[in-house]
Amino acid sequence: MIKSVFFGVALACASTTAGAAGVDVAVGIQMAQIDFDTYHALLLERCKSVAPDSVDALAAAMAQWRERNADALLILRQLYKAQLIQQMRVRQPAATEAEIDAHVAAVMGLFNGGLKNKVAAVPAAEARASCEGEYANSLRSRPDMDFNELLKRMTLGR
Length: 158
Description:
Layout: H1 2-13, H2 25-32, H3 36-50, H4 55-91, H5 97-112, H6 115-121, H7 124-141, H8 147-156
Helix pairs in contact: 1-2, 2-8, 3-4, 3-6, 3-7, 4-5, 4-7, 4-8
């Protein structure tokens, strides 16, 4: 399930892949734009029907991950938004604030549009596996889900 939602979006947008040092910064920044609060709520709702006994443990893992990553995600989102605004102003110096806001919203829509349908479209067996530990393990162990590390790599230039 994580592959279906996250990596389908991130890899479709990225032109480079992860290297030995960790996740590619461009991919990580794009993944940071995903609305994880919405995604997590949708996944938990799906888990209530396909694996109800897993919901509490999954919710706890999500809360722990959110606590660790919330600040870094906020900063990464602000940096990305600032970059989008700067690029728009370079391309269209006469753009109004409304046009810039519409452009930013459209780009964000690429990352978060249709999350509900994407979660609902995942086959039950794959959703059940995500609910029963696969996604929680990803939150704890996948380098691409550690946005603090990504932010550190960006600021240290590594």
